[in-house]
TrEMBL record:
Belongs to the zinc-containing alcohol dehydrogenase family. Keywords: Oxidoreductase. This is GroES-like protein. Residues 8-341 form the Enoyl reductase (ER) domain. SUPFAM superfamilies: GroES-like, NAD(P)-binding Rossmann-fold domains. Coiled coil: none annotated. The lineage of its organism: Eukaryota, Fungi, Dikarya, Ascomycota, Pezizomycotina. Monomer. GO terms for molecular function: oxidoreductase activity, acting on NAD(P)H.
Length: 393
């Protein structure tokens, strides 16, 4: 089969012929039909952690070709079903599978069944960013999720989270939630999840966001429903947020950029007992901040895959709780997509795997958001804003 394979020495990936995988006992074999790109995919091709020969890429959707012998009957999966999920690609030091290939194998419970009404191309853009947002909003910040999962194991594994959750039980009826980078793919899900939590808890949550003005109309409309937006390019956006909130600080903040001074400024929006989550680690060096009022909660989406991962100079421990949460989330997504979450808008990119590095990776850049410079004029090479880049395989 064809697959995009890391060439670490030359910091690129090449289309190669490799043997087709087979499904282990608890896995399914998937014929990949669409993939979407995440910033993490080009980041670890330009700055390789892995050695040459690894299949790169995370997000996929496709159809089931075969099921391993331990895949439980009655799990509602069968040959020919459309499913979507994500793998780790070449984003770790230790050997992990990747998705940018014609076939892949994946644990049967870490995919979600794509419901009617969601296209295979849309589905390719969901799994990694939606789980990232679900971990941020529900698993880490502890807002009410619209599905059940084992919260005791979460707190056993993360005892530091407990005190802030107790404070949360005294929350007032109106909460303020600020999302920085509101037009990122992660944030498009985060906003929807905050609103689902508000419905589940019966509390009003006022959504504040920072995004470019060009995206405000989209973000104020359904299904996102921001009450107040500021433009992150305005030097005084932090003061604007404070003013719009009438002097009351944020109860929660989610920094979907976590670069430069964003973590410091997003933390400064918080009121007393406010709590925040971020998408990039201190250890990775994308942001710096001293004397934060409260240390923001970071986690890598890879935790959901339930395996130990060596990553960015530290080890992401194997987490039973994070895997169980991912399984519960994907089960709900497969049942509820359509009335639960709206898939992100997609940009269908021309051609397939052979153009991912040349076009898609150019658009996402080699690392930071501020490094996304282009100099290309084709229609499909305009800057990425509130959308996923999708290739048909
Ligand atoms: N921790 C994890 O496991 C995890 C998982 C997934 C993603 N991430 C990280 O999360 C971040 C977002 O990922 P994504 O896929 O959602 O990104 P994305 O969709 O590619 O982000 C594009 C958006 O970023 C916005 N943006 C660019 N610079 C900004 C700035 N300085 N301030 C505010 N907004 C800015 C742009 O907004 P406008 O168009 O409005 O200008 C654009 O809409 C990335 O850094 C990614 O690596 C982390």
């Amino acid at each position: 089969m064809k697959a995009l394979i890391l060439d670490a020495q030359n910091q690129t990936a090449n289309l190669c012929d490799i043997p087709q995988p087979t499904a282990n006992d608890n896995e399914i074999l998937v014929r990949v039909q669409a993939i979407s790109l995440n910033p993490i995919d080009p980041l670890y091709v330009s700055h390789p952690l892995a050695s040459s020969g690894r299949t790169i890429g995370s997000d996929f959707s496709g159809t089931i070709v075969s099921l391993g012998s331990f895949v439980p009957p009655g799990n509602n999966l069968k040959t020919g079903d459309r499913v979507a999920g994500f793998l780790q690609g070449a984003c770790s030091v230790n050997e992990r599978p990747g998705a940018f290939a014609e076939f892949l194998s994946v644990p049967w419970d870490l995919v979600w069944k794509v419901p009617d009404g969601v296209t295979t191309e849309e589905a390719a853009g969901v799994s990694l960013v939606a789980l990232t947002a679900a971990q941020g909003i529900w698993y880490r910040l502890g807002l009410n999720a619209p599905f059940a999962y084992d919260k005791e194991t979460v707190l056993e594994e993360n005892p530091g989270w407990e005190s802030s959750r107790i404070v949360r039980s005294n929350d007032p009826d109106v909460l303020n939630f600020f999302i920085y980078g509101a037009s990122t793919s992660v944030a498009l899900y985060a906003a929807q999840m905050v609103r689902l939590s508000a419905q589940a808890s019966g509390k009003k949550i006022r959504l504040f966001g920072a995004a470019s003005k060009a995206r405000w109309e989209l973000l104020k409309a359904e299904p996102y429903g921001y009450e107040h937006l500021v433009d992150y390019r305005d030097a005084d956006w932090l003061e604007q947020v404070r003013e719009l909130a009438g002097g009351k600080g944020m109860d929660y903040a989610y920094d979907c950029i976590s670069e430069g001074d964003s973590v410091e400024r997003v933390s400064a929006t918080l009121g007393p007992n406010g709590k925040s989550a971020i998408v990039r680690s201190r250890a990775g060096g994308a942001w710096k901040a001293d004397n934060l009022p409260v240390e923001p909660i970071y986690g890598a989406v890879w935790e959901g895959l339930g395996e130990e991962i060596q990553y960015q100079g530290f080890t992401v421990k194997k987490s039973v709780a994070a895997r169980e949460f991912a399984v519960a989330f994907y089960k709900w997504l497969g049942e509820a997509a359509g009335n639960g979450l709206t898939p992100n808008p997609i940009r269908l990119m021309p051609r397939g795997l052979e153009k991912v590095v040349e076009d898609g990776f150019k658009l996402l850049g080699p690392g930071k958001m501020e490094d996304r410079g282009l100099g290309r004029t084709e229609e499909w090479m305009k800057p990425v804003s509130a959308e996923k880049l999708v290739y048909i395989i």
